[in-house]
């Protein structure tokens, strides 16, 4: 059986970042990346729908170690994909990827201090086993094979085409056609203005509104800093500027929700005027940051509405008809194409079957440790981002911590690290404190967080930076065991 020190699952933004950190901060360890699909990129290769772009600025969504080189801070999918692939090639990481290798399950043996990982080779269906000392899950938080589509009465009667954005294909033609986009989240507000450029008309049909804010596609301060400073310095200053501004607004939204709400709605009024009923279509029932706020670069959604190329309807679907969608209000929306931007299907452990010494690991029965490891699950970490900030900010810190952990084990001669909850006062809480539908649908299948550190998710970059970059590894909660015969010398980090 082939064996490596560290097995990374996923060759997307997180997986490529994990590989970089491993080979620079914890060198000398062998590693492989297993990728179920046939290319690098993860989300940024999977989603091909019109207008696909980031909903975070690339100065924080980009890697800490690789400055974002382009003018647009809000970038399109193909440019982000090119950035990820370039990172992999520049650092030789592309040579460590095995494509068409889908991880199905993993079993830990304390006696051997290793994971045995069951892998399906795609498309042959052949099963192979690999082993590793440490398993690093970088496969994202949602199911790639399918998006979430509610059951719509009468959908089989519709004569047009229905497509979920996660399954977009090049043959989908919407030029000159009547389009209805069902949804009000990040995907919907991206699709509507892009499709409105060529469609006869686009309707964004939402059951309830979402907070939407406009932001310049280019960051003028970042562009000025680039002219005055070296690229790395300009990048880091812009990164910190955006981190602190994001943290400030999040704190404002949580402490003074009415003030944050007024700020957002005043911005929408300014962009649309009286052309759209802002109270009805852009004023949610919840407070800002109870769900993720949608970003539209340069107000593109508002421009499409202002020009009459698109419109918003807030109502509920009664049923599909042969020619469109009948609403509860009695109105019928005519459509040639319906796009169901209705969300994702969240997964626990990437849908892998996990066992530890013969015991099946169930996500809801575990506590998340520092937002990346799990109680009583040895030598396994997951790379997850923030809900209130850019994904990569947390992933970079997670990778740094994993390297510190591996180096600590090597220095002291341990082969096994296991977070243990020995605190009888710890209270279980939902993994995510978010009211979004995609979260609530999966919340009972996800691990839990605890009521206090190190089991609590604070969603705070500065707090995490201090804890994960500088905090104690041997903190009294992480249990180290399985000593090896000869402690390995930790090689110094390079670069």
Write the layout of secondary structure elements.
Elements lengths: L1 E8 L3 H13 L5 E5 L7 H4 L11 H4 L15 H14 L6 E3 L1 E9 L4 E8 L5 E11 L23 E3 L14 E5 L3 H10 L5 E6 L5 E4 L4 H9 L2 H25 L1 H16 L5 H4 L12 E4 L2 H7 L3 E5 L2 E4 L3 E4 L4 E3 L2 E4 L12 E4 L2 E2 L7 E2 L3 E2 L5 E3 L8 H22 L1 E6 L8 E3 L6 H6 L5 E3 L10 H10 L7 E6 L12
Parallel strand pairs: 1-2, 1-6, 2-3, 4-17, 6-21, 7-16, 8-9, 8-16, 9-12, 10-11
Antiparallel strand pairs: 4-5, 5-6, 13-14, 14-15, 17-18, 19-20, 22-25, 23-24
Helix pairs in contact: 1-11, 5-10, 6-7, 7-8, 11-13
Describe this structure as you would to a colleague.
The protein is 29% helix and 24% strand. The protein is an alpha/beta fold. The strands form seven sheets. Strands 1, 2, 3, 4, 5, 6, 17, 18 and 21 form a nine-stranded mixed sheet that branches. Strand 19 (368-369) and strand 20 form a beta hairpin. The protein is globular and about 75 Å long. The mean pLDDT is 93.
Helix content: 25-40%
Biggest pleated-sheet summary: 9 strands, mixed
Task: Find the structural class using helix and strand composition.
Answer: alpha/beta
Q: Gap between N and C termini, in Å?
A: 33 Å
Judging from the principal axes of the Cα atoms, what is the shape?
globular
Task: Compute the number of strand runs.
Answer: 25
Structural domains: how many = 2
User: In terms of per-residue confidence, which ranges show pLDDT below 50 for 5 or more consecutive residues?
Assistant: none
The share of residues in extended strands comes to: 15-25%
Q: How many H/I helices?
A: 13
* Global Rg: 24 Å
């Amino acid at each position: 059986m082939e064996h490596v020190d560290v097995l990374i699952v996923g060759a997307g933004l997180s997986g490529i970042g994990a590989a970089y950190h491993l080979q620079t901060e914890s060198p000398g360890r062998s590693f492989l990346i297993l990728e179920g699909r046939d290319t690098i990129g993860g989300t940024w290769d999977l989603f091909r729908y019109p207008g696909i772009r980031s909903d975070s600025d690339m100065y924080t969504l980009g890697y800490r170690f690789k400055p974002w080189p382009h003018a647009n801070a809000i970038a399109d999918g193909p440019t982000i994909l090119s950035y990820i692939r370039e990172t992999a090639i520049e650092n030789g990481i592309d040579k460590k990827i095995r494509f068409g290798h889908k991880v199905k399950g993993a079993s830990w043996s304390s006696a051997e201090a290793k994971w045995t990982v069951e892998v399906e080779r795609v498309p042959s269906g052949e099963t192979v086993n690999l082993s590793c000392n440490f398993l690093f899950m970088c496969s994202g938080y949602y199911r790639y094979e399918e998006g979430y589509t509610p059951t719509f009465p009468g959908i089989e009667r519709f004569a047009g085409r229905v497509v979920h954005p996660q399954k977009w294909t090049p043959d989908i033609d919407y030029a000159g056609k009547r389009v209805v986009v069902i949804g009000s989240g990040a995907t919907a507000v991206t699709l509507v203005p892009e499709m409105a450029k060529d469609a006869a008309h686009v309707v964004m049909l939402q059951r309830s509104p979402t907070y939407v804010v406009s932001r310049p596609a280019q960051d003028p301060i970042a562009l000025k800093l680039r002219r005055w400073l070296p690229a790395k310095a300009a990048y880091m200053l812009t990164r910190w500027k955006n981190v602190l501004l994001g943290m400030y607004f999040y704190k404002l939204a949580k402490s003074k929700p009415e003030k944050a709400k007024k700020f957002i709605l005043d911005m929408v009024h300014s962009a649309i005027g009286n052309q759209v009923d802002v109270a009805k279509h852009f004023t949610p029932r919840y407070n800002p940051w109870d769900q993720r706020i949608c970003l539209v670069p340069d107000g593109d959604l508002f421009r499409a509405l202002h020009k009459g190329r698109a419109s918003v309807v807030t109502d509920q679907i009664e049923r599909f008809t042969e020619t469109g969608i009948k609403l509860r209000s009695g109105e019928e929306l005519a459509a040639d194409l319906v796009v169901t931007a209705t969300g994702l299907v969240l997964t626990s452990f990437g849908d892998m079957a996990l066992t530890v010494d013969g015991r099946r690991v169930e996500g809801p029965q575990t506590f998340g440790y520092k937002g990346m490891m799990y109680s009583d699950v040895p030598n396994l970490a997951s790379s997850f981002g923030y809900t209130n900030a850019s994904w990569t900010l947390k992933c970079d810190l997670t990778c740094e911590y994993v390297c510190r952990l591996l180096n600590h084990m090597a220095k002291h001669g341990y082969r096994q690290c296991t977070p243990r909850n020995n605190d009888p006062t710890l209270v279980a809480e939902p993994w995510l404190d978010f009211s979004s539908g995609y979260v609530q649908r999966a919340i009972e299948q996800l691990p839990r967080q605890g009521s206090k550190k190190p089991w609590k998710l604070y969603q705070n970059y500065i707090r995490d930076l201090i804890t994960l970059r500088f905090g104690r590894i041997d903190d009294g909660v992480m249990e180290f065991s399985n000593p090896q015969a000869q402690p390995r010398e930790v090689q110094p980090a390079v670069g």
